[in-house]
Specification:
Blueprint: H1 4-24, H2 26-33, H3 39-60, H4 64-88, H5 94-123
Helix pairs in contact: 1-3, 1-5, 2-3, 4-5
């Protein structure tokens, strides 16, 4: 079983890296997705950097309420990704669709591992 703090750190680091890439290279992301607007990628990147900072902070001393918030935000991300794929399928590139789905799978895995880690953490 992966310790909760390790899962939170992995979530924080991968979210931070993704956010940084999107914030620094929003035009590249827009090109990959086959769209002209880069502002949504910049906004998403900035959000992820803030989110990741919070996750990394919580990873230092996780409390059940903070971890539940992270799990909730991860779950909202997965649901939002499914909605985005359905709504944007004809407007974005195939690789864009695959990237959204892949990230959603990763985020969903983080939510599941954090939930399992929270249960183990509570009984420890």
């Amino acid at each position: 079983m992966i310790p909760l703090t390790t899962t939170l750190r992995i979530n924080g680091i991968t979210s931070f890296a993704t956010g940084l890439l999107l914030a620094i290279f929003p035009r590249v992301a827009a090109d990959i997705f086959g769209v002209t607007a880069s502002a949504p990628f910049l906004a998403t990147g900035l959000f992820l950097v803030v989110f990741a900072s919070g996750v990394l902070f919580v990873a230092q001393r996780p409390t059940p309420s903070a971890v539940k918030w992270i799990i909730a935000l991860d779950t909202i991300w997965v649901i939002g990704s499914a909605v985005a794929i359905l709504a944007l399928f004809s407007a974005i590139s195939g690789i864009g669709t695959l990237l959204i789905a892949g990230v959603a799978l990763w985020v969903g895995a983080m939510a599941i591992l954090q939930q399992k880690g929270l249960r183990s953490h509570a009984t420890a």
